[in-house]
Amino acid sequence: MNEDPVVLDGIRELINIGVGKAAGILGELTSSHVILEVPTLYIGEVGNAKGPGEVLGDAPLSMVFIDFSGPMRGRMAIMFSLESAANLVILLTNEADTTAEMDMIRAETLTEVGNILINGVMGTISNFLGQPLTYALPVYVQNRAAYLATPFGEKDHFLFATTRFQVKQRSVHGDMLIVLEMGSLHPLVRKIHAVMDQE
Amino acid sequence: MKRVLIIDDSAFQRKLLSATLLAEGLGVLEAKNGREGLEIGVRERPDLIILDLLMPEMDGFTFLKEWQQKGINVPVFVFTSDIQTATRTICIDLGATGFLNKPLKKDELSRCISPYVME
Amino acid sequence: MQRSGIGAFLDSIPDGACILDSNRRVVYWNAILTEWTGISPKSARGREISEFIHHDQQRVLSLILTQVMEGGGAVYLSPQLHPHFIPAPYPNGGLRIQQTIIQPQRGPLPGENTLLLIIHDVTEMVRQVKAYREVRDRVLRELEERTRAENALQVSNRKLNLLSSITRHDILNSLTALLMFASMMKEEAKDEDSREGFEKIESIGWTIKRQIDFTKNYQDVGVKSPQWQNVQSIVRQAREQLEGARFRLECRVEGLEVYADPLLSKVFYNLMENSVRHGERVTEIRISYQHDSGGITLVYSDNGVGIPDSEKEKIFRRESYKNTGFGLFLSREILSITGLEIRESGVAGEGVRFEIRGPGEAFRIVRE
């Protein structure tokens, strides 16, 4: 696991900027005040014991993910328990139906929320690197967390961050996962060090 | 030399900002949360404060409230990626002077803070 | 843009589609959008997309497209938050509900992006989800009402049970006293007629006591939910309650489970107690099961005197054949909770044979 505090701090700040932008868009979209926070982050290798599947277990999750390529190749996902996903959608849309069930209408809304969030974060990271990425369309699935890492190899890296949404004084917990193919993390690490090492 | 106090929990963000401010010939003070920012602000009386919002121990909103109560006339620019009207309204009500968007754009920084720190 | 190549392709898809240049002006407007909006491709070309989108969406579009221009990926607009991105009325009224994707295509120079908009009509999908929600809510309401009714019934049942316990307790107390006096009077009777009279009183008293005991057992039948029970364990439990009784028990029901009222052990207790009390010469009791085309039959048999053909149905009634009535009546009731039936099919003089059968799903074999 990469425990370099400088790198962790730099990446966490980039992610926080991205989620802050996303919160802004979501707040304007839904006419509610949205606060998004990323309190914790860690980085590891997919093949390690603490891979995404180990951390999040076997429970089915509501997930939105986007694959990207270019100078960095990988996948970013936002994940919620089924109940949290439904509750987040209900909070953002003021739905009269408050049954916490993820049906197709709500899955579409969560896809949009996830898309905004992922675009915010990956856009900030790619702008920091000064190199644009190419994105696939967002995908919504209900599956175990380990499903997200299946196309990737043991030596590929993952960044795992907890996320807290606050909408109308209520809190919804989600998790973010970025899986990067081998070599994709290094340009980011180098540039963060370059910033920190400058006089 | 005019001095700017940067209050942000990210050392990375403080470094990015301070590099730009130093290049403009400004002095830089740093604090990693609102509580530390209050102590340094009261002690050092900087010419300007650049303030992050989401921080552990004491967040930016609480800092603004406490700073306002101290009655010290130092402008505070909120530094955030959150562009929501609601956030801005809360900060203005708590005495914020202005806003800077994250990620930092040098020309925006210069344009916003020059009236307060340029000799 | 020519109506061949990409244009022809976009005209062939069943979704609304248009292409915007980096100034967000329409470069291409497909046939479906023309059908939906009444605006021809020629009329749309060169105009800003903001002229066609719903006025509520203007600011949002600006925000989101900025995100695209600042390095983000495609824009995904959900039906819930953006139901009518480009208002598209149906011929007979109402607006189509839409899901919209805006995919950027980066040009060779910064700022030279084109945007492809695909608008999918999801009105039917939304209608079906809403219909499903109505059904679900109706079912949940009914379930809630049933649960309330069940709870109310349970409360009533508890009260009734409590009332009968108290009444039974009082009656038993009085009965105990009556039996004691009847026994004393019988011992002290001066003549045979008096003695017989007090004996009859005693006998009637014991009958009343058995009837009272029966009501206590019967009120518990069907109160708790049926459950899967291991027959071997149940039989052993019943055997343990007849400690002093001398018979060999042969039990060949390994792995057999039956879905029955939790009072099932009373059935086997009754059968064994009847064998001991009324079988006259019972030294062996066998319990086994058989498979046939109809399912599984659980068989209880002994080597006692058996039951005459004329009595085989009467034994299950509350009037008594050798006083077996209550126990077997109760056993039949217990088994009937889960659709199980019991009948006696033994040969008189060779011992009893009780067969317990039920619907296919009442029995199962569980291999360890």
How would you describe this protein?
With 199 residues, chain A is of the alpha+beta class. Chain A has helices at 5-30, 52-56, 82-93, 104-129, 185-197, and strands at 34-45, 61-69, 74-81, 134-135, 139-143, 157-167, 170-180. Chain A is globular and about 55 Å long. The two termini of chain A are 29 Å apart. The model of chain B has no long low-confidence stretch (mean pLDDT 92). In chain B, β1, α1 and β2 (27-31) form a beta-alpha-beta unit. Chain B is globular, with a radius of gyration of 13 Å. In chain B, α2 runs parallel beside α3 (60-70). Chain B is of the alpha/beta class. Chain B has a single domain (3-117), classed as Response regulator (Rossmann fold), CATH 3.40.50. Chain C is α+β, with helices and mostly antiparallel strands and 368 residues long. Chain C has three domains: 6-121, PAS domain (Beta-Lactamase), CATH 3.30.450; 128-218; 227-365, Histidine kinase-like ATPase, C-terminal domain (Heat Shock Protein 90, 2-Layer Sandwich). Helix content of chain C is 43%, strand content 20%. Chain C has helices at 6-12, 31-37, 41-44, 58-69, 123-188, 192-218, 231-240, 264-278, 325-336, and strands at residues 16-20, 26-29, 75-77, 98-106, 113-121, 227-230, 248-252, 256-260, 284-292, 295-302, 341-344, 353-357, 363-365. In chain C, α6 (192-218) packs parallel to α9 (325-336) and α8 packs antiparallel against α9. The radius of gyration of chain C is 41 Å and the shape is elongated. The two termini of chain C are 73 Å apart. Chains in contact: A-B, A-C. The interface between A and C is large, with 39 and 32 residues.
